[in-house]
Amino acid sequence: MTNNSIRTIIIDDENEARAVLLNLFKNIPDIEVVAEKSTGSEGLDAILNLNPGLVFIDIQMPGMSGIEVVKKLAELQVKTTIVFVTAYDHYAIQAIKLAAFDFLLKPVDPDELQEVIRKFQAKKLQLQHNSNFDDLLRQLNHENRVRLNTRCGYILVDPSEIIYIQADGNYSEIVFSLSKKELVTLNIGTIEKLMPAGKFIRASRSSLINIACLRKVDRKSRQCELEHKGERHIVHISRDQLGGFDQILI
Fold first, then answer.
1. Which of 60, 126, 132, 243 has the most CB atoms at less than 10 Å from its CB?
2. Residue 19 CA to its chain's centroid (Å)
3. Which pTM value belongs to this model?
4. pLDDT at 125 exceeding the cut of 60
């Protein structure tokens, strides 16, 4: 290997998946695989000890997942480039794209792998890695709060705790439970832009729902049923928004 070798770690619980990458790397100059690990915890230790430039990691693994490894790296302020190699669901992939992380879908296409390596070699600014970690956590959500202004000040909200949002003129009512609601001085369109991509959907011009809380859609009555912590909520769906609900799980 030359001084330009890219120190690389593979983390995947599937033996075959690791073998596929190892075989593909044989045709890519300057890739030096310094470790291959079958669990997230072993992979994290390898990253901390070996200081790789590139890490190819699966998202879904027993124990510590790929996302949890990334969170831990962010906490430790470790700089490396993550490439997710995954067959994971649509929303996680959308979040990865928005956070400017690279990903490869299984089975890995050799040309796509070459393109990922080319992009890495062209990317010189290491400061970009820090912001990427923060962006991914925000897109995958649950750790960063959003500030929403109220008539008396503001509230800090974890979007995952919101069940739905109801327009109230130029204001909006944030519903956290049957007994907990907050009126904020932002219209629903502005709030929609503040919510994480792919996590909320318009039920109508005046309501925005958390997809994670959606349990049932009744086309006849044009209503959707939301459930959160054992509580049931009913929200009206406008006729022109029904089609959007069909795309949620595609």
1. 132
2. 27
3. 0.51
4. no
